[in-house]
Amino acid sequence: MNSKTILPAVILGGAAIAFGQQPQPPQSPAAPPAPPNTDAHYQLGPDSLPREGVPKGELRGPYTLPSQAYPGTQHTYWVYVPAQYDSSVAASLMVLNDGQAFKNMEGDVRAPNVFDNLIYRREIPVMLAVFINPGRTPEQPEPTPQEWGDRTTNRPTEYNTLDDKYARVIVDELLPALNKEYNIAKDPERRGIGGASSGAIAAFTVAWERPNEFRKVLSIVGSFTNLRGGHAYTDIVRKSEKKPIRIFLQDGRNDKRIGRNGQYDETRDWFLQNVRLMQALTEKGYDVNYTWGIGRHGQKQGGAIFPDMMRWLWRDQPVSTDVNDAVERSFNKPVEKKAPGGL
Q1: Do residues 55 and 334 lie in contact, with contact meaning Cβ atoms separated by under 8 Å?
Q2: What whole-number distance in Å separates Cα of residue 88 and Cα of residue 184?
Q3: DSSP code for 90
Q4: CB-CB contact of 90 with 185 (8 Å)
Q5: How many domains does the chain have?
Q6: Which CATH number fits the domain that encloses residue 188?
Q7: Angle between helix 300-313 and helix 111-120 axes, rounded to 10 deg
Q8: What range does the domain containing 114 cover?
Q9: Which of 82, 138, 196, 234 sits CB 3.0–4.6 Å from 220 for a disulfide?
Q10: How, if at all, do strands 191-196 and 246-252 pair?
Q11: In a domain, 31, yes or no
């Protein structure tokens, strides 16, 4: 009796399938939620923004520097001159690779604001700053905040190669051009160079190749990876005699860990290679500082802490402890500009 009652149900069910709605295909599982934006927690502080009453330096340029180290190319650069610059007194020097990004007043660093604020409060010495772009041929476009030049300029060759050619650009080509116009300290302890990503490893290479010219290095998400052998620096540091270099390294735990094809290669793991370099420098007794954040590959964290990186790198500027030294205890005021033809 049970079979007689079940059979019509099956037939009716079959008719429902045949003449009614078609069954819905199984739904694919929901896509996983997008990972959190780990860079969102890094924001510029007051030292990176214009402040009322703080004298502004002048950004001069752009200038064009023909290159002998890379024949057929030229480098565009700008010079930041602080309001406190006195041509009769030798100024310190800070060079920043990928200059267009560091000087961008809508960007993640806004270095001119930082120089204005820190020099005014005597937290770094009076210094000139040079923002220099990677080399390019005359027909190639100038790098921009959207395209730093990896596909359009000589940037990969200049910045990622472990040789002395880019050091020649800075020391043998840029410095002589600057010395014609400005009074720059000859002491290498008063010269620094920095950058982000490939610009950071290029900065380290300049100091490594020419420590008698530059001894302070600022590195934001440095590409000490196997783009062109940069991961070798860890072993090179360990095997080489210690050099008189001070360096501040910044990187994030989400900085380019996995390759584009999804395969892991530790020589192209940015965070790992930054940590390895820090360990090698520490073992050799270098004056090294570092901070590891949660961010990605970019200038978000580095820009937020750029004022602190500069303070640490330049912490040994001379100071007066004389309680009666009213100049030392006052803001660093602008130098009075002489009128044309004045004495």
Answers
A1: yes
A2: 10
A3: P
A4: yes
A5: 1
A6: 3.40.50.1820
A7: 30
A8: 58-313
A9: 196
A10: unpaired
A11: no
pLDDT of 337 reads 77
Residue 230 lies in a domain: yes
Token pair recorded at residue 127: 């210094």
3-state secondary structure of 81: strand
25-71 pLDDT, tens digit per residue, is 667 677 778 889 999 999 999 999 999 999 999 999 999 999 999 99
Cα 83 from Cα 104, distance rounded (Å):
19
338's tokens: 């002489």
Q: Is 66 exposed, middle or buried (0-12, 13-18, 19+ CB in 10 A)?
A: middle
CB neighbour class for 164 (10 Å; exposed up to 12, middle 13-18, buried from 19): middle
156/162 Cα distance (integer angstroms)? 11
Nearest alpha carbon to residue 319 among 311, 328, 308, 307: 328
Place of tokens 């309680």: 323
Query: Any residues with CB less than 8 A from the CB of 223 and at least 6 apart, and which?
Result: 159, 160, 197, 198, 200, 201, 230, 270
Continuous segment of H or E residues that includes residue 113 = helix 111-120
